Amino acid sequence: MTFSLGPKATSAGFRLAAFDKVGSTNTEAMARARQGERGPMWFVTTEQTAGRGRRQRAWVAPRGNLASSVLEVIDVSPAVAATMGFAFGLAHAAALQRVSMEANLRLAGADQLDYRLKWPNDILVRGEKLCGLLVEAEAVTGGLAVVAGIGTNVIAAPQGTPTPATSLQALGVHISAEELFAALSDSWVEFRGIWDHGRGFACIRNAWLEHAFGVGEPVAIKAGATTVEGTFDTIDDTGCLIVRTAEGKRMPITAGEVHFGTAASVGAA
Ligand code: BTN
Question: Is 154 in the pocket of ligand 1 (CB under 6 A)?
Answer without folding.
Answer: no
